[in-house]
Design brief:
The chain is about 55% helix and about 10% strand. With about 220 residues, the protein is an alpha+beta fold. It has two domains: about 110 residues, 3-Layer(aba) Sandwich (Glutaredoxin), CATH 3.40.30; about 110 residues, Glutathione S-transferase Yfyf (Class Pi), Chain A, domain 2 (Up-down Bundle), CATH 1.20.1050.10. Helix 1 runs parallel beside helix 3, helix 4 runs antiparallel to helix 5 and helix 4 runs parallel beside helix 6.
């Protein structure tokens, strides 16, 4: 059994999608970040960076004591290793998946999060910040579109943990006020991934956990 410490954000969705795809037994432990529950001492003992998601695997690969992990990219990689699913075992394939996973964590997610903050959440309107992050997010979507022009999935012909990671952020294009039709290859891929049963289940779970959770336009 895996405990998933989770809230209904793109980073949280990555892990619920992964667990659903891998058919692993898990229990959701809600961490309502709107109530600052990520600062609770019990959660900090698992995730010292006070960010969701985090997991506790009660049956880890080494058969030792329960293993706590934070950082979504690390969790996805661990689960890929645990199950031998959605993560190539050959060095070249694994490196390709890793580079796109890190690209999402360090680029797409970070820049999209900043753009959303300055567009919709900042207490003051800051045109320079909005323009800066909008330009970078558009550049990143263009990178994604070019990659998908000649590939069925992010890292090539197979669906991997990289697709799970990138999907949850790329699917927020409506929240980011982007015209997704400008990125037709990305849109084709978004529609394909959103139709996967495990992805549908994960977003359905999000709505049960938090009825106010924003849903991407793909699920409306």
């Amino acid at each position: 059994m895996i405990d998933l410490h989770y809230w209904t954000t793109p980073n949280g969705h990555k892990i619920s999608i992964c667990l659903e795809e891998m058919r692993l037994a898990y229990k959701i432990v809600p961490v309502d970040i709107s109530k600052d529950e990520q600062f609770a001492p019990a959660f900090l003992a698992i995730a010292p960076n006070n960010k969701i998601p985090a997991i506790v695997d009660h049956a880890p690969l080494d058969h030792g004591a329960p293993l706590a992990l934070f950082e979504s990219g690390a969790i996805l990689t661990y689960l890929g290793d645990k199950t031998n699913k959605f993560l190539p075992s050959n060095p070249r394939g694994r490196a390709t998946v890793a580079q796109w996973l890190f690209w999402q964590v360090g680029g797409l997610g970070a820049m999209a999060g900043q753009l959303h903050f300055f567009q919709s959440l900042a207490p003051q309107h800051v045109p320079f910040a909005i323009a800066r992050f909008e330009k970078e997010v558009k550049r990143i979507y263009a990178v994604l579109d070019r990659q998908l022009a000649n590939h069925a999935f992010i890292a090539g012909t197979d669906y991997t943990i990289a697709d799970m990671a990138v999907f949850t952020w790329a699917a927020t294009y409506d929240m980011l006020k982007l015209r997704i039709e400008q990125y037709p290859h990305a849109l084709r891929w978004l529609e394909k991934v959103s139709a996967r049963p495990a992805v549908q289940r994960a977003y359905g779970i999000a709505k049960k956990i938090n009825p106010d959770a924003p849903m991407p336009a793909l699920f409306m």
